[in-house]
Write a structure and sequence with these properties.
Blueprint lengths: L10 H9 L19 H13 L5 H10 L6 E3 L10 E5 L9 H15 L4 E7 L3 E2 L2 E2 L3 H12 L2 E3 L9 H17 L6 E5 L18 H9 L5 E8 L5 E5 L13 H17 L13
Parallel strand pairs: 1-9, 2-7, 2-8, 3-6, 3-7
Antiparallel strand pairs: 4-5, 8-9
Helix pairs in contact: 3-4, 7-8
Length: 284
C-alpha cells in the first residue's frame, strides 16, 4: 500500500505554523527559566554553518552546561563503561523554551567527566518536517550542522515525502562502522528511540525500526546504556544514568514483533530512570 503524500511545506504553510501558538508544556512546579546561549556563540555558530568550519562539540557542550539557569543534578555516573565503545539510549526531552540541545550537552559533558577519551556522536534527524513534508532548505542546514559536530544523519520515519527506510539502513551502516573502526574503542553513539517528537509529557512509543537497529548495534558487543533527562520542580535538569545491558530477545519472533520488543525493552529501561508521571507509554 502506497504511503499517503503529505501536503507541500509551502512558505505560507510554514509561516502559519510559525505563528500558531505552541502549548506550554512546562511541568508543574518548574519556574519559567531562560535557556539561552550567549549571543556571541549564536553569531559564531551561524558563521561556521555558512562557511562549513568545524567546531569543538566538546566545548559547545560545556558552554551549554554553563548556560543552564539552575545547577543540574547528575546521578549514575558509576554505570558509564570505563573502556570500550557503548551506545547511549536516551529520551527526547524538549519543550517550548527548552531546546533538546541543552539536555544533550549535559549528557555528553557528564560522560566526558568520566571518560576523557570518548568520541560522542549523536544520531539526529536530517530535516525539519511540517505535517510529514520536508521544510525546504532544512536538509542542507542539518547536513552542515552534522559536519560541524560530527553527527550521524537519518531521515525520520515521520517524513512521508522521503525514503526513510534506505536512509535508516545507511545510518545504521555508519554507526556499525563507527563502533567497529580503528577509533571504535572510544566511540559513544547516542540514540533516541522516540525519534524527533519527544516532549515533556512522557515517553512515546519507539519509532519503527529503532528496536532492530539497537539489536544490530548491540551485536557488535557494545553495551547499551540507558539515560534520562527531566526537569525537577525547582527547575534543575536532572540526568539519570542506569546500568548497561545487552538485549536478549525471545527466539523466533517475526521482524515486526522483534523490532517492537527491542524498542520497548530499551525505553522501558529509560522509563525506570524517570519519575512515574513521565514514563508515558511505558508507565505502570
Amino acid at each position: 500500500m502506497a504511503k499517503p503524500k503529505p501536503p507541500r511545506a509551502t512558505p505560507r504553510r510554514i509561516w502559519r505554523a510559525l505563528r500558531t501558538p505552541t502549548p506550554n508544556e512546562r511541568p508543574p512546579g518548574v519556574p519559567a527559566l531562560r535557556y539561552r546561549f550567549p549571543l556571541r556563540w549564536a553569531v559564531a555558530m551561524g558563521r561556521d554553518i555558512l562557511l562549513g568550519r568545524p567546531r569543538s562539540f566538546r566545548a559547545d557542550c560545556a558552554l551549554a552546561v554553563r548556560a543552564l539557569p539552575v545547577r543540574p543534578k547528575i546521578e549514575g555516573l558509576e554505570h558509564v563503561p570505563r573502556e570500550g565503545p557503548f551506545v547511549v539510549v536516551a529520551n527526547h526531552y524538549q519543550r517550548r523554551d527548552l531546546w533538546v540541545g541543552f539536555c544533550g550537552g549535559l549528557l555528553c559533558d557528564a560522560l566526558w567527566s568520566v571518560r576523557d577519551d570518548l568520541r560522542c556522536r549523536f544520531v539526529i534527524t536530517d530535516r525539519a518536517l511540517l505535517d510529514g513534508a520536508t521544510v525546504p532548505l532544512t536538509q542542507a542546514i542539518f547536513a552542515r550542522v552534522a559536519r560541524l559536530w560530527d553527527m550521524i544523519l537519518v531521515t525520520p520515519a515521520e517524513a512521508l515525502d522521503a525514503g526513510a527506510e534506505e536512509s535508516r539502513r545507511h545510518a545504521l551502516r555508519t554507526c556499525l562502522q563507527a563502533l567497529r573502526g580503528a577509533s571504535g574503542r572510544s566511540t559513544c553513539l547516542i540514540i533516541s528511540p522516540e525519534g524527533v517528537l519527544g516532549n515533556t509529557r512522557g515517553l512515546r512509543r519507539a519509532t519503527a525500526g529503532s528496536g532492530r537497529s539497537l539489536l544490530a548495534l548491540a551485536a557488535t558487543g557494545a553495551p547499551l546504556l540507558p539515560t534520562a533527562v527531566y526537569e525537577e520542580p525547582g527547575g534543575a535538569l536532572h540526568l539519570s544514568i542506569g546500568p548497561t545491558w545487552h538485549p536478549t530477545p525471545p527466539r523466533d519472533l517475526p521482524k515486526a514483533q522483534l523490532d517492537a520488543w527491542a524498542g520497548g525493552d530499551a525505553l522501558s529501561r529509560v522509563a525506570a530512570l524517570l519519575p512515574e508521571h513521565l514514563r508515558g507509554a511505558y508507565g505502570g
